[in-house]
Write a structure and sequence with these properties.
Distance between the termini: 23 Å
Helix content: 25-40%
Strand content: 25-35%
CATH topology of the largest domain: Aminopeptidase
Strand order of the largest sheet: 1-2-6-3-7-18
Largest sheet: 6 strands, mixed
Number of strands: 20
Radius of gyration: 25 Å
CATH architecture of the largest domain: 3-Layer(aba) Sandwich
CATH class of the largest domain: Alpha Beta
Number of helices: 11
CATH superfamily of the largest domain: Zn peptidases
Bound molecules: zinc ion
């Protein structure tokens, strides 16, 4: 018990420095499509972890529109390593931050600002946890090889980041810990043990254009065909399987006096299990082929082409993640912190790596309204914030859990 008290004192003593680190990160706009800002945040992050003994590697993204990924490494004496995952980017363009006067703002138990919760608060948590391990268990800190991976473009599709992490994992990698925000249910703090997979898709209908006045019979109306198709796609949703389809955008035709020759819809589908995911994918692709809308003149039929645009595979509930979760549950019991688990709908980098090393998510502290920047006068809308009082206790729980995890691997 004495150790927990000492840890608590140390963590509390570091909170002013932690908030200052977070404040400076939040002050750097790092919208995914602002690569200069992302790279600036990346350099600042590297400088902030350097005193802990980390060296930086800036790795270009495969997409030149994005900033560089950041890999921070601290070589330990042993071959055992831990991977800690965060990201650099946010969803807020600089103009949006200005328009909504969305900046660092401390108000009672909340700190508002772009990325406070998603995920600069997670990076600050990572820093505090490592500082506390260094102070509290210096031998362990020096023994383990710490590998920190920060994605430049998590908020958009960036599978190359998963490949980068996997390249650095080896037999000694005990776990990958993702610092996205925790969930909350009453007074329970929820770690994330599974996430839905998501695919985006496009359906293109090619019909045959015709003059709507003189050659109407020759036309095969792509818009009408797509109209037939959309309810079929929507009906692929199966709540019992936790499989959902969303038709997101629809575009058809160009002018009013032509039978439209092309119509396009795009959307996504999501599922928790690989089985449901594959089922959904197969059902969508099975729509390929000739449609029922035909030219009355010669029977020329509309052609339906479905394609998958991007895929982030599901991270299903699995034994290895559950094993890592147990350390956090025990740590919660010892530090008087009610811990539970959740399966979450949204994606994280956990989806890209869970099958390579045991992965747990939700190490970040609690906040709310991520991806929101608006505030209304009546208080019904408030932007993204992180909770102040929950931060230090979460850090202490993370430290105790990580030390247990490493101890168990000895
Ligand atoms: Zn995030």
């Amino acid at each position: 018990m004495h150790d927990v008290v000492r840890l608590n004192q140390f963590v509390e003593s570091q909170m002013p420095a932690t908030w200052e680190f977070l404040r400076q990160m939040v002050g750097i706009n790092s919208w995914t499509l602002n690569p200069a800002g992302v790279d600036r945040l990346s350099r600042f992050t590297a400088e902030s972890f350097a005193p802990l003994g980390f060296t930086a590697d800036f790795v270009p993204s495969v997409n030149p529109a994005f900033g560089k990924h950041l890999v921070l490494t601290r070589r330990g004496k042993s071959s055992r390593s831990l991977a800690l995952i965060s990201h650099l980017d946010t969803v807020f363009p600089p103009e949006e931050e200005e328009r909504n006067i969305f900046h660092w703002l401390v108000e009672g138990d909340r700190i508002f600002g772009p990325g406070t919760q998603d995920i600069k608060g997670g990076t600050a948590m990572m820093w505090l946890v490592l500082k506390a391990i260094q102070a509290h268990a210096p031998e362990v800190f020096a023994d383990v090889t710490w590998k920190l991976f920060l994605n430049s473009s998590e908020e958009v599709y960036s599978p190359d980041f998963g490949a980068l992490c996997r390249k650095h994992f080896d037999k000694g990698t005990l776990a990958a810990l993702v610092f996205e925000t925790e969930g909350r249910l009453g007074n329970e703090h929820l770690m994330v043990v599974a996430r839905k997979g998501r695919a985006t898709w496009r359906v293109t209908v090619n019909g045959r254009g015709a003059h709507a006045g003189g050659k109407h019979l020759q036309g095969a109306n792509a818009a009408v065909q797509l109209g037939h198709l959309l309810p079929r796609i929507a009906a692929l949703t199966d709540y019992k399987r936790d499989l959902t389809f969303n038709v997101g955008t629809v575009n058809a035709g160009t002018v009013l006096n032509r039978v439209p020759h092309e119509a396009v819809a795009e959307g996504e589908f999501r599922a928790f299990t690989p089985e449901a995911y594959q089922h959904g994918k197969a059902a969508l692709l099975a729509l390929n082929g000739p449609g029922e809308v035909k030219s009355p003149l010669d029977g020329y039929s509309c052609q339906i082409t479905t394609e998958i645009l991007t895929e982030s595979p599901p991270w299903p509930r699995n034994a290895e993640t559950d094993r890592i979760y147990q350390f956090f549950e025990q740590a919660g019991r010892e530090t008087g912190y009610a811990v539970n688990l959740q399966e979450r709908g949204g994606l994280s980098d956990g989806n890209l790596i869970w099958d390579a090393v045991p992965t747990l998510d939700g190490l970040g502290s609690w906040g709310d309204n991520d991806h929101c920047s608006e505030r209304s006068a009546d208080g019904s809308k408030v932007p993204e914030y992180i909770e102040v009082s929950g931060f230090a206790p979460k850090a202490e729980k993370n430290v105790v859990a990580i030390l247990k995890l490493i101890e168990a691997a000895r």
